Amino acid sequence: MLSSRALTRQGLRVNRRFLARRSQTSVAHKSFRRAASRPLGNSLKRLPSVLPYSTEQILKSRDSKIDLSKQRILYDAKDEKDNCGVGLIANLKSKPSRHVVDVADEMLVRMSHRGGCGCDPASGDGAGMLFGMPDSFMRLKAKENFGVDLPEMGKYAVANIFFPPASDTRSIMGDCKAIVTRLAKERGVNVLGWRPVPVDNSMLGKEPLNSEPITEQLFVTMDKAQDQRAFEQDLLLVRKMAETEVQEMLGPESGFYVNSLTTTHITYKGQLTPEQVSQYYLDLQDPDFLSHLALVHSRFSTNTFPSWERAQPIRMMCHNGEINTLRGNKNWMYSRGGIMESPEFGDDTTHLLPATSDNMSDSGNFDSVLELMTKASSRSLPEAVMMMIPEAWQDNDNLSEAKKAFYEFNSCVMEPWDGPAMVAFTDSRYIGATLDRNGLRPSRYYVTKDDHVVLSSEIGVCPELPDSEVTIKHRLEPGKMFLVDFETQRIVPDDEIKEQIAALKPYGDWIENHMIDLEKWTAASGTAREPMDFAVTNRKLNLFGYSSEKLEMLLLPMAVGGKEPLGSMGNDAALAVLSEHPRQVNDYFKQLFAQVTNPPIDPIREEIVMSLVCPVGPEGNLLDDPNETHCQRLVVKSPVLSLEEMATLKNDEFKATTGGPGFKTTVIDTTFPVDAGVDGMLAALERICDQAAEAIQGPAHGKKGVQGIILSDKFAGPDRMALPSLVAVGAVHHHLIGTKQRPKAAIFAEVGDCKEVHDFATIFGYGCDGVCPYMAYEAMCKMNADGMVEATAKREFTDDELMTNYRKAAAKGLLKVMSKMGISTLQSYKGAQVFEAVGLAEEVVDRCFTGTTTRIQGTDFEALYRDMERFHDDAFPRHSQEDDILVRSDGQFHWRDGGEAHLNTPGGMVNLQVAARTNSRDAYREFSRITNEQNQKVTLRGQLKFQFDPSKGIPLEEVEPVSEIVRRFATGAMSLGSISQEAHETLAVAMNQIGGRSNTGEGGEDPLRFKDNRRSSIKQVASGRFGVTSEYLANSDQIQIKMAQGAKPGEGGELPGFKVSQYIAKNRHTTPGVGLISPPPHHDIYSIEDLAQLIHDLKNAQPHGEVSTKLVSEVGVGVVAAGVAKAFSDHILVSGHDGGTGAAAWTGVKGCGLPWELGLAETQQTLVLNGLRDRIKLQTDGQLKTGRDVAIACLLGAEEYGFATAPLITMGCIMMRKCHLNTCPVGIATQDEELRKKFTGQPEHVVNYLFFVAEEVREIMAKLGYRTMEEMIGQTQHLEVNRKGQHYKSRGLDLSPLLTPAQELNPSAGIFNTTGQDHGLDKKIDNSLIVRAKDALENKTPVVIEDVVNNLDRTLGTMLSYEVSKRHGGEGLPDDTITVNLKGHAGQSFGFTLAKGITMNVEGDANDYTGKGLSGGKISVAPSPEVIKDGFKPEDHVVVGNVCLYGATSGKAFFSGKAGERFCVRNSGALAVVEGVGDHGCEYMTGGVMVCLGETGRNFAAGMSGGIAYIYDPDNKFPTRCNMGLVGLETIDTEAEKQEVFEYIQEHVAATRSGVGQEMLENWDERSKQFVKVFPHDYKRVLEERSKAMEEAA
């Protein structure tokens, strides 16, 4: 197969070059330890105490001056995240060899770009390798160290154990060893002795060296007659009990960590770079160290802090991805402790629990539960993996009934661990890997002729493996499992292993006989819903927090249209904690969302992976053998319950016909007497928790408890107040978790205050199983009776129709909220608590929402009670006897005199426009005064004031001029399409005049603007990739990657067809009149290492500009920003939640994202703490309006500042909030030609305004004593809390975490940008290509270049394309002017934005993102003729990876073989021919042609609005795999079209020598009849209209 040592030596040469340099400067750190030797001097230099992975210890490691017992900060270590590169290699025959070890090492090193490094290139984020037990090696070491011969394999075990740093110089290490030894003997395990593991730490950087543990191996054997499984169970108990006992002695994450303790394998890992693993552990260099399998892992963490134990592989697996539902998974697993008992461990089960911990990463928790299920139950490893990461089984016609039944049954036992994941696992009987249901992580594998399998995150990791030795090239598909069974010595196909497991039990029969369907139960019950009394409806609406706005703007559109209504221009209303009006508790919670470390999901186009169906009620024993009692649960298909379903639950009891427990509920009243005060409220909380626990437990005389509890507030009225439903549900849910009763019953809510999608999202997020919003139903029915529905909809609706539509809209909205966090199933979302509380006191959070982040305190129970009193007074006024009560109108959505405070007021806007248009300083000062007053009512920065010291002030003339300050200003990303050409160009001209920067937004830019003062300096790259070409990127000063948008983070966007004019379509490379979709995620960014790749791509596309990453403020944005900085972004923008938008659902506008003040301060603190701040520029935006805003942003850490809403107002915007309707009356947010004529804005208006802002900044700087803004960055000591004007809610705020000076966290680190990133462009192959293509670039002389390529050659051809675009513009060069022929394995992003005139051919295969952004060039990938001659059939194998041709605008691509998932996603103009694709092919495609000569995966053409695809479908399989939402299926029905497709295939054959293509050409008359034409409806309509117009014109 390979020459292992030669491979390793050659393959590692480039990657380890820096280590040679490093070793020359590492003499001071060098401590070369062999066997028992360890120099005492070096040990004494180590940290004097252990290094737990905690905020406190991280601060200690940075010599921080902060005492967390007295002062809080925004950074929290628990927010850290990581992504990775993963691989495995195994010999199918279980033959140990040195070859496996060497290839594993090479694989790890060749994925080093998927790992991370901090400030020091010799300090890695973590890497490791797990090997099958090296039996011959261990026998030698046992003989050398203990003088004993080990028994046969399976009867001995070797552990690799970390001990705390320097613990050998104290008694700690001896104490830990004594604990392990004692516990082993108690379990009948014979301890042979301890072996110090020899290491060489000379190459380690400062961080890993300071925290380096002592590593020793424990050798043990069986001391009693038992089988291997029983021995393994004893070893598990020893390890678990030792960990518990040491933790009690030393605290959590003390540095004592058992990497592995098993008979089958051993793990070597640490806080290392991939290159360092085999250098550090000398065992791995020993020629006697042999293995038949290996898992390898390279970690990319968002931090730079040391953590040896968090490196992977773990005990049974390694993981690339993120568990988005971790908090819920951990809570559920903890509470299952009350019902779990292992038949094999019996009473000892308690020693294995809890299986999850806050002190472990998401991967660590997953591994712990996986180990528990495989060693403490009868489930096999593949079965346990199937349970934890199930494929999308609901509504999947491609699954057998047996598999569906297996998944449905096991959904009753455990919720999915949901999120993007590629998990590789082994127990030495099996080795394998599985992929999440949506295929969001890459995984490719080879099978060789000499019985080896190699699977990894990318191909090319074994560069010297010749294609002639490979028999299979394939990929791991979404939801599928790759599995090697060493007993049968073969790869077991996914279908075979899953069908075998599904057939083990009669799951289908059990489900049929024992599961209870709520819908069917309700229908059979016939229980009538309760009558409605409209006479008191308005009173109850006021009681439960309704307003006329919410009725008209939210409920009515949901009831009539069946979907959430849209709004625009963002949210400028007060935070709940700052509001002087009563607010619901739900308003304090902000939805978390995925950005960078994992992707959001498109819940519309990718609904096949989403599900709201949940089993609820009593769970079975997870560790018991699967049996019929496990599925005796209630199935709720829609969590927003109908009135009839609630009536059935309340009034009926389901009695099982098979003798099971059935289903019975009890109703718990959540109201309490009016005037009971806050004590009465708390007493009511205590009462409902106790009542719930008692009802579930059952009466003392032995009767069984209920299976469900219903928390109801229906008794609320004149004399009784209702607990907020979220408070009631959260308190009961967490009480039952604490008592470990939560898995024993369902929690339902019959409540009046749930009305909008955010209300549902929060109540389900905190554990509710089903909610009946009875007041929302009553409100709709009353509006119908009053005629409002008919007046709005212009048609009649029945009450049932309205309620059905409302439930449908709520369900869609809930799916969207889940998808923002990358969560696919409601079962996983329930209890996941993916929120931050903003302005809610800890006493409330700890009692009702345990584990939720609340960083600035605020509203306590007393303040909540006062708001409840005010709601009650609105409903039942104490001093009014009027019967006709009106529903309040509080101005939450639109400014209203006397209503909720808004930042944008009529008075402020008038003064701003006067100031901008007349250059009036007085008008600007009045605008500034009004705005700053509103800030105090609306924003966090309004709660701050400057600390001026008159003695330190300086004369104004000493402060840097306005002309320097405005260079730090930028306009927000408003796309050409969302706003008019006139408005877009006005902003660009204005910013160019002052030396600031304008931003294109995601709509591209007219190339004519590249050469004049209309050019936007910032070119945005968003998920839709509209207008992104080589020329576009080359003409930028900064390229901004939009990860999220402040007004709607985690969501995509849609530009309706009526806004896609001829001009807009031309710049977006799409079709006029056809609507455009921006996906929620970037389909090339599913993780932090993916973002690093895109940053690398864009830096290659414009080597002389900056690459910026736009993030949105949320808890943990600072740690994400640290990861972004480590991914080599030059610039980071942190946007606030209150930014504007052209269109978004109100749920996202109001309920998602955080103020920029929180995000900016956290990012500044985290970057400084990590020592990363000096390498990036930091910007913020989000309703910045005045010089005061800018000055506060500067003091909190920003050096650049973005403006959007205010410049629009200067150009004429009057905040009609109708941007999404194309009816903007002032010509800004419209493409209507008549309305655009009304635009009166001028660049000077924007310039005047920004100069006024800068002048105000100068005045503040003078008072503070700063001459330059650079001096002022991060100086938070000049800010303090302004207590003036605070009220009963806001007086509890604690803003001190924002004001902690970042410099104090890490005194040695920089606090603003002083240096740049090293992008490594000098090492790119493109430099050589540019030299060799010089004649072609300068004189258009054709040139042919021959070379080799490997997976480390990423983004090949992009710098060459930059040279073409800068010299020749978008026209490029004549076709085939530069031809590059390559052999090998192309790295990621091969041919990114390849320009016209360049042809790149690969003889071999390629990785993910091949042809991404193709800009007129040509690409081909095909196996070599020699391999094909040897019998290799390319059409049966995968030759290119995922997301190929993403955002391609022109050019051609030919692939002889299959492609992965999301082929041609958002293609808008390229021709692509391929021989098979995975799921989601042609997703969001808007133009171009795709020809597939083989099968496709599921969900083809989802969101496809343009272009045409031709699919060869001789067996008629394709129609069931196509998403028919936007497309129709036709045949090739004209000779012209038949000839056109023939020529496409002809080109494919010419480029790739495709055998399948050649066969089709030879039999074209017959084959052409077997093609299906995929034709988008809108695209067809536009083409027909265009054809008709041309005919009429002729």
Automatic annotation (TrEMBL):
Needed cofactors: FAD; FMN; [3Fe-4S] cluster
Coiled coil regions, renumbered to chain: none
E.C. no: 1.4.7.1
Database matches in InterPro entries: Aldolase_TIM, ET-N_metabolism_enzyme, GATase_2_dom, Glu_synth_asu_C, Glu_synth_asu_C_sf, Glu_synth_centr_N, Glu_synthdom, Ntn_hydrolases_N
Assigned keywords, A-Z: 3Fe-4S, Amino-acid biosynthesis, FAD, Flavoprotein, FMN, Glutamate biosynthesis, Glutamine amidotransferase, Iron, Iron-sulfur, Metal-binding, Oxidoreductase
Domain Glutamine amidotransferase type-2: 84-487
GO BP annotations, alphabetical order: ammonia assimilation cycle; glutamate biosynthetic process
Superkingdom classification of source: Eukaryota
GO molecular function, one term: 3 iron, 4 sulfur cluster binding
Involved pathway(s): Energy metabolism; nitrogen metabolism; Nitrogen metabolism; Amino-acid biosynthesis; L-glutamate biosynthesis via GLT pathway; L-glutamate from 2-oxoglutarate and L-glutamine (ferredoxin route): step 1/1
Record family assignment: Belongs to the glutamate synthase family.
Protein name, UniProt field: glutamate synthase (ferredoxin)
Species per Swiss-Prot/TrEMBL record: Cylindrotheca closterium
